[in-house]
Amino acid sequence: MVLTRRSLLAGAALMAAPALHAAQRDGPVVVVGAGAAGLAAAEALRQAGHAFTLVEARGRIGGRAFTDTSLGADAAFDAGAQYIHWADRNPWSAIAEREKARIGEDSSWARTLVIDGRAATEAERTARRAGFGTLTALLVPAGADRSIRAAAQIGGAGAEGAAANLTRLSLGEEPERVSLADYDRLWSGEDLWVDGYGALVARHHAGLPVQLETRVTGIDWSGAGVTVETDRGPLAGAAVIVTVPVGVLAGGAIRVTPGWPAETASALDGLGMGAYTKIALRLDPARLDLRSTGDAVSVARRDGRDLTLYFEMAPFGRPVAIANLGGDGARALCEAGEAAAIAEATDRLAAILGAEARRAVTGGRLAGWWTDPLARGGYAIAKPGRAEARLALRRPIADRVFLAGEALGEGSAMTVGGATLDGQRAAAAVLRVLAS
């Protein structure tokens, strides 16, 4: 981190920021963002009896946990999160059970592998599995932090290919941009596949008061409290909990006065946003027997970029095929737009299932978080050598600005459960400060 005059001034402002007066400690807490972290923070404040104002730029709650019904209620799909990861300690496991959410069975391997439009040979399938086996043994941190790609190179081309598939199709990022140390910290355990995870989140928090379609444009923490500027006017508070994605914060969409302290700016620089992307295709069951199709992987390159798609076929029996992809190829497809993305996914599905599959496609939807200005990516990825960035963002700024979200979760990072736990952590930290 290069210390500039601006960052030094921000650090000085942090040290000199005035303390809260007793009257200000009783003021409301402004919560920015009604994704999983913001909703959890607001709920914790409500249960503690402390006043809060929850604002959300979208016209709905849930953030990147979103069940999209634009292709029809019978073809609903989770455009963002769809798994309750590490279910034994995830707070959403009990919520899903209590609310009788439908849980499906997931398989580890796709039935079909297609390479450049042709069925893979048995030798290619075996080599692919062997590459993942080799990679597993190599993903053990040793010495200085390095990228997953650097760790995989020791194992040869098979392990490198497996590393690329792992990071693109689970994190949405290229393997050279992913910290091995951070990846190794992620919690493991049983994953529960939820039919409508986004809908579950929205339903569970439906009773929280929230100001929708209220975009935050600035946060001023130079005074004794905070002032949050929105496109509907300013909001004053004793403190603010900011839960918007780090891609939005790093991009400067919210003006911060007097600026981020040097440590916070450095931590934001240590995280990037993956480009995990989904393309949903609605299918006509009269033209395609969805009961006979299984999940498939289609490997190909476009314009020198990997564009491997993992197709989930008819999840929960719904008439849809959902293509999953990530990395730079996904970024390019998002930037090309929805029509191009649907055309690409349709072509690839037809290469797997035949021409009848093309005729069965009756509509499509791109869940392109990378080009969504309110997300700027799927979830936060720690860069190689920057595994400490997540925890650094947890440190309050002048005891009045608190960051929260999936990016700060360390072992629980990149999940709805992690965002929920971190929103609760941030609310508890705010309440401790205001009570002191």
Description:
It catalyses: L-tryptophan + O2 = indole-3-acetamide + CO2 + H2O. Keywords: Auxin biosynthesis, Signal. This protein has 16 helices and 24 strands. The strands form seven sheets. Strands 8-7-17-20-21-16-22 form a seven-stranded mixed β-sheet. Helix 3 links the parallel strand 1 and strand 2. The N terminus is likely disordered.
Instruction: List unreliable stretches of 5+ residues.
Output: 1-16
Query: What's the CATH C level of the largest domain?
Result: Alpha Beta
The major sheet is characterized as: 7 strands, mixed
Please name the fourth-level CATH homologous superfamily of the largest domain.
FAD/NAD(P)-binding domain
Report the sheet-strand fraction: 15-25%
Gross morphology is globular
| CATH architecture group name of the largest domain | 3-Layer(bba) Sandwich
Rounded Rg: 22 Å
Q: Note the gap between the termini.
A: 33 Å
Share of helical residues: 25-40%
Q: What's the structural domain tally? A: 3
| Average pLDDT, all residues | 93
Strand order of the largest sheet: 8-7-17-20-21-16-22
Number of helix segments?
16
Q: How many beta-strand segments? A: 24
Domain Amine oxidase: 190-431
Signal peptide: 1-22
Catalytic activity: L-tryptophan + O2 = indole-3-acetamide + CO2 + H2O
GO biological process, one term: auxin biosynthetic process
